[in-house]
Amino acid sequence: MMTETESSVDVPEENVNYAAFRDLCSNNAEYFCKDTTENGQRLYLSFMSMKDDIDLVLPLRDSIESVVHQYDYDEATPGNGYRSFLKILDSAIVHGIQVNKKVCLKRDSVLFRKSSITKEVEACAQLMSSVHTCLKHLQVLRKHSAKNELFAMEHSTPQDLIRLTDDINQYCFYGRPLGFQFTESIRGPLRFISLSMAIFSEAYYSDGSMLSKATNSVMTTTKYVSDPEQRAKRVVNIGNNADVDFCKAFWFLSESELMQYLPSIVAPSAAICKTINIPTEPITLNVNGKEIDIPIPMSHIGSKSVHVRLISYEAREGMVGEGKNTKMEPPSRGLLIHCHGGGFVSQSSKSHEVYLRQWAKELRIPILSIDYSLAPSAPYPRALEEIMYAYAWALKNCQLLGSTGERIIGAGDSAGANLLTAMSLKCIEIGVPTPHGLFLAYMPTYIGFIPSPARLLCKLDPLLPFGFLTRCLKAYVFGSRLNEKQNGSANGAISPDTTESFEEISESDLLELQAHKSPTSEMSDTLTYGSLTSQTDDTRDLSTIKEPDFTGSDTSQKFDLLDKFVLDTDGTKIAVLKQESVPATAAPAASSQFEFSLQGKVTSFVSKLRGRMSNLVQMKSSSSASMYLDVPQNPIEPEVYAMKPTDPYISPYCASDELLKQLPPMKIFTVHLDPCLDDCVSFAKRVKNLGNDVNLTILDGLPHGFLNFSLVCKEAYDAAKQCAHQISDLFDLDSLSPQT
Asked: Which SUPFAM superfamilies does the record cross-reference, listed alphabetically (predicted)?
């Protein structure tokens, strides 16, 4: 038996925490065992339950810890779904210690509120019990996985393995302990999102007039704020039962008008932030003397312009839409191609602008972010086609983006990282040069419905619930098939107007506000890129087109170009040029000539929000598949169980060795608590074994999608800066020969 001195030296810290947690539970259980009140007995049973669970958890933990290293990427980068649950267990123990200490310190006080603390202790006991259940399921997954493989593909069907997890009590993860596994600074934002989801669902699924909705909203807000258990029940049921339309509607909140202005207020300023509409015209690239035709995106919705957003910390020579009176920096030698995340069904470059502006400042390199069409209206392969087309356009017209194109790097997060990798594989197939490097953040690499330890994290993830994940993947893979049934179309054709991203919808709604917009020092416009000079050759090289000189006295040419512009959410530069015929640098001086009515702006916003909420309710009411949130359902539809796509452009992990060997250098960035962690680890291991240049980074304490929290969480901000540094390493501009 070890002495106290030996224990303090040799026992790992987590074991010390386990011992302290068990002692605290024993102490509190002994204190309340003689308390005959209802709350006293509930406290006693809760402490005894936690004590029993810790005794049952330790053998499971030791068993998993003994083999967990087999699944790591390498010795220097420990991380996989099994390790993630060990970290969650450690976090649960720390949370339990805090709750127990709180009881120990206050239980003798006359101000001790036994009824209140009982709920907190019971939530902690349920948390420990659920973590124990998760560890038992990890043992089952190990038995059904091949040696050193993270995905359970042997001896059982996916539905059998998923059904085993139905006994996990998800409610405790979304109640009082919500966010316990993450760093403390991000718990507040996560609780706010959870609360917002519960409140938004009440409005989305309720019937009645707007007045009754407003009244109910106040009541439900109070209910969910004061009762975490009710909030947890609502959020879990939403995650299990809500369809993809609810997911899109909820995530649309990040695209609302009020959020449109947030990046320009709190994020680093950008000299250039504009959207460019690229018409789908034939593009031919000349690669080593061989002409390669780039396919025009046609799947599902036919020919439609591709939207991209250009962000640059500095205005640079040659940038499309920029006059010559403004002081310009020389073209950058690099260009960053970005694809946003959003589960293939939501968000846009605008909602990711928060960290893109930060990257633009850190890198001093123009960023071109692609707004691809979204599922389920535009499922696979539409997004891939548009990204490939926009990339080819950028290769041919990089000078219009303020770059020489000497080094082009691709960067994407989540679904965007998947699409960017698929685009690189497509480039290899058709002979187009790939980007010189890829930065891929928390990327899903296998879209098949195969369980893994990290994917089990969806059972307790506040941002990526299990039902949300499966329905987004289903919408991306099966969207055309579902729309065929809904629209009765033989070929799955869908009206183009149903595929607008949230940003497009909000921009069209905001056109009426253009008279109320206040000029700012930042230039933010939407440019429809078309023929600026008359040429008859359809295969003309667009890079030879020069912008008209705005400094001369001839204003007709200037307004011909301006007629091609479509107002963006800021609309500043265009309005100034139309009114005063002055360059963009004079915009601040012209601000007095604009009528800016805050009351009118707010009134218009509220009116449109009311109309949008009414439309959402009408859509929900007219649907034959109404949702009953209080009835537990299996969130997995039969077709999702059968979802095992081996198409490498859907699941890059399934690509052939020959294709994977030709991928450019990659830096894969993820977090320990990411449901896509095993996807990243497995993909990185496979590519490394083929001899590719790949680096894997795994951070602790942050959730999937942490880049979007860079302004509200210090750790997320630091992680975003670390991402920028890795992207800078991929550019490696210092190694290039000096410009002549």
From this structure: alpha/beta-Hydrolases (SSF53474)
Residues 659, 660, 665, 668, CA torsion sign? positive
Alpha-carbon dihedral angle through residues 74, 78, 79, 83, given to the nearest 10 degrees: 130
Amino acid at 514: Q
Cα-based torsion angle of the residue sequence 186, 473, 377, 528 in order, rounded to the nearest 10 degrees: 50
Strand 565-566 to 437-441 pairing: unpaired
Residue 440 pairs in a beta bridge with: 412, 668
Neighbours of 534 (CB within 10 A): 5
Residue 241 falls in which region: left (phi positive, over 0), alpha (psi -120 to 50) or beta = alpha
692: helix, strand or coil: coil
Of 173, 194, 240, which Cα lies nearest the Cα of 632?
A: 240
Q: Where are the alpha helices (DSSP H) in 34-80?
A: 38-65
Question: For residues 60 and 736, what is the distance between their CA atoms, to the nearest angstrom?
Answer: 53
Q: Are 206 and 476 in contact (CB under 8 A)?
A: no
For the segment 700-712, what is each residue's pLDDT rounded down to a tens digit?
A: 999 999 999 998 9
Q: How many CB atoms lie within 10 A of CB 43?
A: 25
Question: What is the sign, positive or negative, of the torsion defined by CA atoms of 185, 187, 191, 194?
Answer: positive
Q: Residue 712 gets which letter from DSSP?
A: T
β 694-699/526-528 pair status: unpaired
CA–CA separation, 700 and 713 (whole Å) = 14
pTM, two decimals, is: 0.81
Residue type, 373: S
Q: What is the DSSP letter of 619?
A: H
Report how far residue 122's alpha carbon sits from residue 171's, in angstroms, rounded to the nearest whole number: 12
The radius of gyration of the chain's CA atoms, rounded to the nearest angstrom, is 28
**Strand 290-294 and strand 283-287: pairing?**
antiparallel
Cα 95 to Cα 80: distance, rounded to the nearest angstrom:
23
Backbone angles phi, psi at 632, to 5 degrees: -60, 135
Strand bridging mode 332-339 / 367-371: parallel
Q: How far apart are CA 558 and CA 575, in angstroms?
A: 13
pLDDT digits (tens, 9 = 90+) for 638-659: 555 555 568 999 999 999 999 9
